[in-house]
Specification:
single chain; 372 residues; mainly alpha; hpI Integrase, Chain A; 3 domains; 3-stranded antiparallel beta sheet; 14 helices
């Protein structure tokens, strides 16, 4: 590593620093503005020298040494610190809220994943290699291939951003492929759906049974349900703003959908009234699903947590009653909705091609024998 040093002269330091030779190595005084104490450090991840402020102009020799020691202890960039830097960047702020929520979950899993020498989050990124990323992907795949792929995507996103902003000198995640994941084909039977719906109604999560109904009836993803606002209410039906390349459409009103929509709006009005929060003027700024605790828009992670807890309650209740209950995911509600749709399923689901539709239309077709 190339050495770096600065000529030390009493002219370059505040008068209260009597002996500059006793300063920590690579510290110097920047006289611009009010002045500040700086530390030069070698960033192994980026392969270059950097400087950072460690103290104000009035810092004593002892305080400068304390600041130096503190910086020395955390000067090496780890995946955790790099990931947190990314979450404070413009690139992060440009992401959709649902993507941020998903990435935050990935961040927690990655930094807390244990290795023989500690955790992935605490490993210096200068020591990360293609093998490190591949090993993490394969390790997580033992539990869930889909989660391994999601977390790999986050690692790729962080390193790609860091490379663009010269925070790392290479990208160890480049070229690492996602694992093949078989498309889920589970269909939630009516008995399982109705059983879980009743458990949700009996729970403390007012929004879960309503969200389940709307997701099923309108063939929606969880994030699309959370996005619903008053602006989506139309005379002819509910406007569905679809994600992941699907085409927006309108689901016509029927008594069941009207009841679910009214229940959500009534509960929202009750929460806002109790908290004395005036409704926003613009309909697109009035989310249908809000937190009973804060009155703010619900986030995807809250519904995922609620769904997991209701699943546990349902399994426990089924065991107590001695009945069979087959667990299904929230996303299976869209699959059930598409499968149960009569008529043009592709148009109803918003899928742009038949291959996308085939993932969701999971029941075999009932056909007549030949010759009839």
């Amino acid at each position: 590593m190339k050495k770096r040093g600065r000529t030390r002269s009493s002219d370059n330091f505040p008068s209260h620093i009597k002996d500059p030779s006793k300063l920590p190595s690579h510290t110097w005084f920047n006289k611009s503005g009010a002045g500040k104490w700086m530390l030069d450090f070698y960033d192994a991840a980026a392969g270059k020298w950097r400087s950072k402020r460690i103290a104000g102009p009035l810092a004593t020799m002892a305080e400068i040494w304390q600041a130096f020691d503190a910086q020395e202890a955390k000067s090496e960039t780890t995946f955790k610190s790099l990931s947190l830097d990314f979450q404070n960047s413009l690139a992060w702020r440009d992401l959709a809220r649902s993507t941020q929520d998903d990435y935050l979950g990935c961040h927690e899993k990655i930094i807390n994943c244990k290795t023989a020498s500690g955790s992935f989050g605490d490993q210096p990124v200068s020591k990360w290699s293609v093998g490190t990323v591949r090993s993490y992907r394969d390790f997580r795949a033992e539990e869930s291939r889909s989660r391994a792929n999601k977390e790999l995507s986050y690692i790729k996103r962080v390193f790609s951003w860091a490379y663009e902003y010269e925070k790392v000198k290479d990208n160890p995640a480049k070229g690492i492929k996602k694992l093949t994941v078989a498309a889920r084909k589970h269909y939630a039977e009516d008995d399982d759906y109705n059983f879980l719906l009743q458990v949700a109604k009996d729970s403390n999560y007012w929004y879960m049974p309503i969200a389940m109904e709307i997701a099923y009836l309108c063939r929606m993803r969880l994030a699309e349900v959370v996005d619903l606002t008053d602006a989506d209410e139309r005379p002819e039906g509910l406007y569905i703003r679809r994600r992941k390349g699907s085409k927006d459409n309108i689901t016509e009103w029927n008594p069941r959908l009207e009841n679910a929509w009214k229940a959500a709006k009534d509960m929202r009005s009750k929460i806002l009234a109790e908290k004395r929060i005036p409704p926003r003027i613009k309909p697109e700024e009035r989310p249908i699903f809000i937190s009973e605790r804060t009155g703010d828009r619900l986030v995807v992670s809250s519904l995922k947590t609620a769904k997991a807890r209701i699943d546990q309650q349902a399994i426990k209740k089924a065991n107590e009653l001695g009945i069979e209950f087959n667990h299904f995911t929230f996303h299976d509600l869209k699959r059930k909705g598409v499968t149960d749709t009569t008529g043009n399923k592709q148009e109803a689901s918003g899928h742009r091609n038949a291959s996308m539709l085939n993932i969701y239309d999971v029941k075999p077709s009932l056909v007549r024998p030949a010759g009839e």
